[in-house]
Design a protein that fits this description.
418 residues; mainly alpha; two-stranded antiparallel ribbon; two-stranded antiparallel sheet; 8 strands; 50% helix; globular; binds (2R)-2,3-dihydroxypropanoic acid
């Protein structure tokens, strides 16, 4: 009898394209940044050399300035839009010019800590550490040049939560593209009701047009972008990654690195504290163009727990918020507060449950001394995958698997939880 365990391993193997994993066949035919970080941890549960290879191939796409792109186009495919012809970044391999939430240092440390082959893991880490450090320096230099403690996100794709209601207000200012022909492929693979709207894509691509015109220069992009947000998700994930990088610096770096990373941690922790929304009972993002908080509850608002940026009192309040959300749905954690009119249980990041987000939130509640809630989220995530399969995301109202099937990061999380 095939178990789901076997199926999860088989999914990773089926999505392997020779050292890197596509998130799923056809819908996402390249290597994605934060997907690969989770996928590396999934591989590590049964094939450590392959896990390290996932990271090595992701780093093959790293730029000289430290950027780790959202997408590495290792091999051509017509199944995805926008491909390298839209980005027009002439590198080998070609890449996108934006980034994604930086889970990588956390994943690399997880691989090292869980390694059965310690000498091999230490050799891999010694090679990877300078790339991670360079990447975290990129985040500050490119996205927080004034050292505010909050990095700026310039594209919804960079948040990983593309069409979250959190971005609706800020995206309302973004014009639609006038220079790029949109040739979406996603809606020929997946029911359009589960994907962003056509107008979202017109705006997503306008932003790419702006950055291409800025010749992918970080300062020019920051100055020209009509979208600038301090995403609570990205900032929490980066802060968490800085903690992991600091632990790695103690073994693979030097005291100068440690001091530098420690200073960033102090700035980020203080700055994330300013994103607390006492009335909503969780953290929210900030629109850096208007300067206003984005007062919409999303699953990203729980990620400061994972980032180690919360007080005990805030964690207690967030546990109440989470319990209240859960009384409105069957399967936690919905990506949007289910009490809001913008909650849509099928549409990508406007309501569905994502296993990777659940894994981070559960880890955060556990670290903040709420083990009951952590266990509930982990058990429900496992149960959801056991009921619905290795889907891209899930409808929180009925547990139905939606989006793409045979999804690498869902398989990875299952292997880590099981
Ligand atoms: C998409 O949906 O195409 C985004 O690039 C995912 O990150």
């Amino acid at each position: 009898m095939t178990t789901l365990h076997d199926a999860a391993r088989a999914t990773l193997r089926a999505n392997d394209r020779g050292g890197y994993s596509v998130p799923t066949a056809r819908l996402y035919p390249f290597q994605w940044n934060w997907d690969s970080a989770f996928v590396a941890m999934g591989w590590a549960t049964f094939d450590e050399p392959r896990a390290w290879q996932e990271i090595t191939l992701l780093l093959r796409g790293q730029w000289e300035d430290g950027l780790i792109p959202q997408i590495i186009f290792h091999a051509p495919s017509d199944d995805y839009f926008p491909g390298p012809d839209v980005w027009q970044i002439h590198r080998t391999p070609p890449t996108s010019g934006n980034t994604q939430p930086p889970v990588l240092a956390t994943a690399a440390r997880w691989l090292l800590d869980h390694a059965r082959d310690k000498p091999a893991a230490e050799a891999e880490m010694a090679a990877i550490y300078p790339h991670l450090l360079r990447n975290h320096r990129w985040w500050e230099a490119a996205r927080d040049p004034l050292h505010t403690g909050l990095v700026t996100t310039l594209h919804p794709w960079e948040t990983g939560m593309d069409n979250s209601p959190a971005w609706d207000g800020a995206m309302a200012r973004v014009p639609t593209t006038t220079s790029t022909v949109i040739r979406r492929r996603d809606t020929s693979h997946i029911d359009p009701a589960m994907r962003p709207h056509a107008e979202d894509y017109q705006k997503f691509i306008h932003l790419v047009d702006v950055f291409r015109d800025a010749e992918w220069n970080p300062a020019a992009m920051l100055a020209a972008s009509p979208l600038r947000v301090a995403d609570v998700g990205t900032n929490s994930i980066l802060l968490r990654a800085e903690h992991d990088l600091l632990a790695l610096a103690q073994r693979f770096g030097n005291p100068v690195d440690e001091a530098e990373i420690g200073a960033r941690i102090a700035r980020m922790r203080a700055a994330i504290a300013t994103l607390w929304d006492a009335e909503l009972g969780l953290f929210t993002s900030r629109d850096l163009i208007s300067g206003e908080p984005i007062r919409i509850g999303t699953s990203a608002g729980f990620l400061p727990l994972y980032g180690r940026a919360t007080t005990a009192a805030q964690a207690a309040i967030m546990s109440v918020t989470m319990t209240d959300w859960n009384s409105h749905i069957t399967w936690p954690v919905p990506s949007t507060d289910p009490r809001l009119p913008s909650f849509e249980p099928l549409r990508y990041w406007r309501g569905p449950v994502w296993a990777v987000v659940n894994w981070m939130i559960a880890e955060g509640f556990a670290a903040a001394s709420h083990p009951g809630l952590a266990t509930l989220i982990r058990d429900k995530t496992k149960g959801l995958i056991e009921t619905a399969g290795l889907s891209e995301y899930f409808d929180p109202t009925n547990g139905r698997g939606v989006g793409g099937a045979d999804f690498s990061w869902t398989a990875a999380i299952y292997l880590m939880l099981a």
